[in-house]
Amino acid sequence: MKHLYTWSAIALIVLASTAGDVLLSRAMKQIGDVGELRRRSGLLTVVGNILRHPSFLLGVLAMTVAFYSLLFALSWGDVSLVAPASASLTFVATAVAAQIFLHEHVDHRRWLAAVLVAAGVLLLAA
């Protein structure tokens, strides 16, 4: 039962962290060049634009869920499994999400790296 809790928490870490990364990236791309905006309108305008952006706020919320899920996972499982599994699976999920939701180009080297990372997680889980 402890393994089910651990892997459930790892899955939640991966999903929430990936969603957070995608939402934060989308928000910052929609806001635009922060340096240019700061030069034109000032730092308070930049901070205001960022903090009012719905994607940014949802991204922060998702990252918060990921963080607390990590704490739960570490209380149920070994750090030698939780840390590498959550980090590496998040890498794989983020590559997939970046291509699907952000229409970013993910080259063959990154896909190969993602496959190798997933294989490493399988070795850890066995």
**Overall pLDDT score:** 90
Rg from alpha-carbon coordinates: 17 Å
Order of helices and strands: HHHHHH
Largest sheet: none
- Structurally, how many domains make up the residues? 1
Give me a quick take on this structure:
The protein has 126 residues and is mainly α.
Could you characterize what this model shows?
This protein has helices at 2-31, 34-41, 43-52, 54-76, 79-101, 108-125. The protein has one domain (2-125). The chain has 126 residues and is mainly α. It has six helices and no strands. The radius of gyration is 17 Å and the shape is flat. The protein is 89% helix and 0% strand. The model has no long low-confidence stretch (mean pLDDT 90).
Architecture blueprint of SSEs:
Layout: H1 2-31, H2 34-41, H3 43-52, H4 54-76, H5 79-101, H6 108-125
Helix pairs in contact: 1-4, 1-5, 2-3, 5-6
Structural descriptors:
single chain; 126 residues; mainly alpha; 89% helix; 0% strand; flat
